[in-house]
């Protein structure tokens, strides 16, 4: 049995998370700094290439100086779990629900946030002891999906990921999503004031 209730503390009551996908080292650090300055506590960097892993290491180091933590995203292999731990990640995020990845992350001391898109996946994840789940791809699932899941699975807490920006985040938060993950929106000066308003 695993447990990922630590996400309650990791997100610290902040309704946004930043995903820095394939931005390289310098750009990742720059956008992470924008997110932190805005008030976003949790940052995720996918680990699909050696450059991604190096970016994770650099951003995780910068986060520690602020008393914050960084997670590794798109964790789909056991090697990704090892790389994430070695690079200084504090949690893992996956696009789907793979119990082997969840358990390996748990054993490495990294809470896992698996992706779900069906009632069967939500039920299986809850059976494994996971209460925080990533709904992916949220933009395609739509806001109504969360209301439908809340009936049979009131104990599930969702992070909406995939196609989210400042214009869509409010409707998902209003639908009961606990955290919305944004990426390119953090590099759009026109979206920053809206994101900042969501954090107040």
Blueprint (SSEs and pairs):
Blueprint: H1 7-10, E1 16-19, H2 24-38, E2 42-46, H3 50-65, E3 70-73, H4 78-87, E4 91-93, H5 99-107, E5 112-113, E6 115-116, H6 119-127, E7 132-135, H7 138-141, H8 144-150, E8 157-160, H9 169-174, E9 179-182, H10 192-199
Parallel strand pairs: 1-2, 1-9, 2-3, 3-4, 4-5, 6-7, 7-8, 8-9
Helix pairs in contact: 2-3, 3-4
**Helix and strand run:** HEHEHEHEHEEHEHHEHEH
- Determine and state the CATH class: Alpha Beta
Class based on secondary structure composition and strand pairing: alpha/beta
Q: State the CATH architecture.
A: Alpha-Beta Barrel
- Report Rg: 15 Å
What fold name stands as the CATH topology?
Answer: TIM Barrel
Main sheet summary: 9 strands, parallel
Strand element count: 9
Beta-strand residue percentage: 15-25%
* SS field, number of helical segments: 10
Overall pLDDT? 97
Strand order of the largest sheet: 5-4-3-2-1-9-8-7-6
Provide the CATH superfamily. Answer: Aldolase class I
Q: Portion of residues in helices?
A: 40-55%
Number of domains: 1
């Amino acid at each position: 049995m695993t447990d990922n209730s630590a996400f309650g503390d990791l997100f610290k009551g902040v309704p946004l998370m930043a995903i820095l996908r394939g931005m390289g080292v310098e750009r990742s650090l720059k956008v992470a700094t924008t997110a932190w300055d805005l008030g976003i506590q949790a940052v995720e960097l996918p680990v699909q290439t050696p450059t991604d892993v190096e970016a994770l290491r650099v951003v995780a180091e910068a986060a520690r100086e602020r008393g914050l933590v960084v997670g590794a995203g798109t964790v789909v292999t056991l090697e990704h779990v090892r790389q994430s731990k070695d690079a200084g990640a504090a949690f893992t995020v996956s696009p789907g629900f793979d119990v082997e990845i969840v358990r390996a992350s748990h054993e490495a001391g990294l809470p896992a946030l698996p992706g779900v898109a069906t009632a069967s996946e939500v039920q299986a994840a809850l059976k494994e002891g996971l209460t925080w789940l990533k709904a992916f791809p949220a933009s395609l699932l739509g806001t109504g999906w969360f209301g439908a899941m809340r009936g049979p699975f009131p104990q599930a807490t969702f992070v909406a990921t995939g196609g989210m920006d400042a214009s869509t985040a409010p409707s998902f938060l209003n639908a009961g999503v606990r955290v919305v993950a944004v990426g390119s929106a953090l590099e759009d000066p026109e979206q920053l004031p809206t994101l900042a308003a969501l954090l107040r």
